[in-house]
């Protein structure tokens, strides 16, 4: 793929440049996964059978095909003055009426270089549309949120929600470990290979109690976790059925135990979700009244209820919250080669989440953030796998990592930050953030410091090959997660995501 070749060449160049000045570090491998001579990987289970999960099937079409370059079907010239909202919206709506091809693609709208001022919002609500500019800097295509009002400037927005298309079928295994891609169910009647299912994990009262999330230290506004409010719904596809055992495409990222309600599966539909939408080569800016102004553009690009979509070569400046935010119902989205710069807001909670993910199976890659708070971050009950890879953050005012309320299955791979990366019990922070996540993996990351802790139950978190200082975290008395090779150069593979991706394609050829 083009993505792999670009990264490989870049890394090779760095090695050549550094060779005269630095001695090559001694290579070492993790006790959790080892890279074999043929490029395959061997995973080593813990005493419960948990392994590091496979993160390789995230992003646009599971990163199995390159991001497409659609032909231009509509060209828009930058106006000499005045608001351009209706001009661009009319172009989007016109292309939305075009018939889609067999791949669900309609075509690209080319916004010629220049400045387009937008007093309100733009919407893409149909599949197969690409909004493309002629550069993501001041000399390219600039879309500027003018005037007042917190808002998402460009909204990629489908409709509907996940709806069951059949009854829940219980998983009959007493324990399903992290990393598993198969398990037994009570019945396979009506299930078919290739069918999309929800892997369901309930939030029982005894699980919340053992996690101590009904015992969060109280302060004004603190909400204790309640049974049923933290049910998790992972989107998966059946790949094989043998007797009463089913196999799925993406792994289990949170262990399932009978004592905590076990798990179940059910087929589903998501009518109204859109797909094949892309945003490319655009600079988004927001007007603002001062460095702490909050009555202006908040998010440059927001995606909800969309799948197999992408945002590439996009820069945002002066927004209060994010460059790109993948919201609920977004899946298999690739965000690549994007920058979030110079946020304008009060520096406090609920602001400056530069690249924010609340969807699942999403990939953020080759991104950069400056002057953010939570630059690579997930929200509540985020279902993995999700990946942040090969990205940087400068002038950080808080930390990267899962932010609150139990994200599961996130890989932070080769993230470099001058702030912290934390995976911890956040207790009463916010309105009762509590345990921020499980099966959160930091791989070959560099930061000022990190706290990576193990929840009281239901798994652990990992920090492998981290360069930086270890901290106790915001609250004392929590057990550390799995730390390995702190401040030790030479971790192999240098990227877990890329190694898993290459290993998967190696298996497909054999």
TrEMBL record:
It comes from the Bacteria. Gene3D superfamilies: Single-stranded right-handed beta-helix, Pectin lyase-like. InterPro entries: Pectin_lyas_fold (IPR012334), Pectin_lyase_fold/virulence (IPR011050). Residues 1-23 form the signal peptide. Keywords: Signal. This is Pectate lyase-like protein. The lineage of its organism: Bacteria, Pseudomonadati, Bacteroidota, Sphingobacteriia, Sphingobacteriales.
């Amino acid at each position: 793929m083009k993505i792999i070749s670009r990264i490989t060449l870049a890394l090779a160049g760095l090695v050549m440049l550094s060779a005269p000045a630095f001695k090559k570090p001694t290579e070492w491998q993790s006790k959790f996964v080892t890279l074999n001579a043929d490029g395959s990987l061997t995973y080593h289970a813990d005493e419960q059978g948990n392994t590091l999960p496979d993160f390789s099937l995230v992003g646009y079409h599971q990163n199995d095909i390159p991001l497409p370059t659609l032909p231009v079907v509509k060209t828009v010239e930058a106006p000499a003055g005045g608001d351009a909202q209706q001009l661009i919206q009319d172009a989007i709506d016109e292309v939305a009426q075009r018939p889609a091809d067999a791949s669900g693609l309609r075509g690209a709208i080319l916004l010629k270089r220049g400045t387009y001022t937008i007093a309100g919002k733009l919407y893409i609500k149909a599949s197969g549309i690409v909004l493309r500019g002629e550069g993501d800097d001041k000399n390219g295509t600039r879309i500027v949120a003018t005037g007042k009002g917190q808002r998402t400037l460009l909204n990629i927005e489908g409709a509907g929600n996940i709806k069951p298309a059949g009854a829940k079928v219980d998983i009959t295994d007493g324990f399903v470990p992290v990393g598993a891609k198969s398990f037994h169910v009570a019945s396979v009647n009506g299930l078919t290979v290739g069918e999309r299912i929800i892997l369901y994990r309930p939030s029982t009262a005894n699980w919340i109690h053992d996690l101590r999330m009904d015992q969060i230290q109280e302060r004004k506004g603190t909400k204790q976790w309640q049974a049923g409010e933290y049910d998790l719904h992972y989107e998966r596809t059946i790949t094989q059925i043998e007797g009463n055992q089913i196999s799925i495409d993406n792994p289990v990222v949170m262990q399932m135990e009978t004592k905590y309600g076990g798990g179940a599966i059910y087929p589903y539909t998501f009518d109204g979700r859109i797909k094949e939408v892309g945003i490319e080569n655009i600079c988004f800016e927001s007007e603002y009244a001062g460095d702490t102004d909050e009555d202006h553009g908040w998010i440059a690009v927001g995606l909800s209820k969309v799948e197999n979509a992408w945002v590439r070569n996009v820069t945002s400046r002066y927004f209060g919250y994010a460059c790109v935010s993948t919201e609920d119902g977004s899946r298999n989205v690739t965000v690549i080669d994007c920058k979030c710069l110079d946020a304008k807001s009060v520096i406090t909670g609920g602001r400056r989440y530069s690249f924010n993910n609340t969807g699942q199976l999403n990939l953020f890659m080759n991104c950069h953030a400056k002057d953010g708070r939570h630059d690579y971050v997930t929200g509540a009950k985020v279902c993995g796998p999700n990946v942040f890879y090969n990205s940087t953050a400068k002038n950080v005012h808080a930390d990267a990592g899962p932010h609150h309320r139990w994200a599961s299955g996130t890989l932070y791979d080769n993230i470099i930050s001058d702030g912290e990366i934390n995976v911890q019990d956040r207790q009463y922070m916010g309105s009762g953030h509590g345990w921020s996540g499980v099966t959160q993996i930091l791989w070959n990351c560099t930061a000022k410091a990190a706290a990576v802790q193990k929840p009281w139950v239901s798994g652990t978190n990992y920090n492998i090959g981290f360069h930086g200082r270890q901290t106790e975290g915001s609250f004392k008395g929590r057990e550390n997660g799995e730390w390995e090779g702190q401040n030790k150069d030479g971790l192999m593979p240098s990227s877990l995501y890329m190694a898993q991706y290459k290993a998967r394609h190696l298996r497909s050829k054999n």
